[in-house]
C-alpha cells in the first residue's frame, strides 16, 4: 500500500495518514476553486445532433449538482447557409441541425451560446487554432456570396465594429 503513495515499506500508518491529510487539503482547495465562477467555468462543446444535446443536458445537470458554473455552450460543426446550397443532402442536414440548435436555445436561454462552422479541414497547429479562436470572441458570420450593395455595406459596417471590439479586447489582454 505504501508504494501507492510513493513511500518505502519502512513508513507506517502514520505516514500514510499524514499524506492522505495533505491530499485532502489539496482536494478541498481544488473543489473550492471549481465552485467559484470567478475562477472556473466549464464550457460545454457539442454538435447540433440529438445525442449531443442529450449528453450536454446530462453534463449541465451533473455539474450543477457540484455547483460548477456551466453557462457557456459551443455548438461546433454547424453548416451555415452562406450561399445557395444545391445539395439535397446538405439542405437536409442544415434543417436537422437547425432543429437541434433551436432546442439548445430553448433549453439554455440564459447561457452564452456560440455557433462555430463546419470546416473543410481539421483545425490543427498553432496558426490554425489562432485563426479559428477568433470566433470565440465574436460570432462566426457566414460569407455573403450574393446580395445588394446595402447588404454588403451593412456587413462591412458590422465587421468594422467587430474589428474594433477585437482590438479593444486585445489591448485589455496586453495590459
UniProtKB/TrEMBL annotation:
<dbReference type="InterPro" id="IPR027417">
    <property type="entry name" value="P-loop_NTPase"/>
</dbReference>
<dbReference type="GO" id="GO:0043529">
    <property type="term" value="C:GET complex"/>
</dbReference>
<dbReference type="GO" id="GO:0071816">
    <property type="term" value="P:tail-anchored membrane protein insertion into ER membrane"/>
</dbReference>
<comment type="similarity">
    <text>Belongs to the arsA ATPase family.</text>
</comment>
<dbReference type="Pfam" id="PF02374">
    <property type="entry name" value="ArsA_ATPase"/>
</dbReference>
<dbReference type="GO" id="GO:0016887">
    <property type="term" value="F:ATP hydrolysis activity"/>
</dbReference>
<dbReference type="InterPro" id="IPR025723">
    <property type="entry name" value="ArsA/GET3_ATPase-like"/>
</dbReference>
<dbReference type="InterPro" id="IPR016300">
    <property type="entry name" value="ATPase_ArsA/GET3"/>
</dbReference>
<dbReference type="GO" id="GO:0005524">
    <property type="term" value="F:ATP binding"/>
</dbReference>
<feature type="domain" description="ArsA/GET3 Anion-transporting ATPase-like">
    <location>
        <begin position="13"/>
        <end position="135"/>
    </location>
</feature>
<protein>
    <recommendedName>
        <fullName>ArsA/GET3 Anion-transporting ATPase-like domain-containing protein</fullName>
    </recommendedName>
</protein>
Amino acid at each position: 500500500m505504501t508504494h501507492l503513495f510513493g513511500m518505502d515499506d519502512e513508513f507506517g500508518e502514520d505516514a500514510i495518514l499524514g499524506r492522505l491529510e495533505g491530499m485532502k487539503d489539496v482536494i478541498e482547495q481544488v473543489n473550492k476553486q471549481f465552485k467559484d465562477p470567478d475562477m472556473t467555468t466549464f464550457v460545454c462543446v457539442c454538435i447540433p445532433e440529438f445525442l449531443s444535446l442529450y449528453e450536454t443536458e446530462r453534463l449541465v445537470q451533473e455539474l450543477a449538482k457540484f455547483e460548477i458554473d456551466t453557462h457557456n455552450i459551443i455548438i461546433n460543426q454547424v453548416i451555415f447557409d452562406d450561399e445557395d446550397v444545391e445539395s439535397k443532402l446538405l439542405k437536409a442536414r442544415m434543417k436537422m441541425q437547425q432543429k437541434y440548435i433551436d432546442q439548445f436555445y430553448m433549453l439554455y436561454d440564459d447561457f452564452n451560446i456560440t455557433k462555430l462552422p463546419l470546416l473543410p479541414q481539421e483545425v490543427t497547429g498553432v496558426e490554425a487554432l489562432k485563426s479559428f479562436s477568433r470566433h470565440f470572441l465574436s460570432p462566426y458570420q457566414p460569407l455573403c456570396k450574393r446580395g445588394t450593395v446595402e447588404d454588403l455595406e451593412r456587413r462591412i459596417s458590422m465587421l468594422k465594429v467587430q474589428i474594433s471590439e477585437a482590438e479593444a479586447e486585445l489591448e485589455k489582454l496586453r495590459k
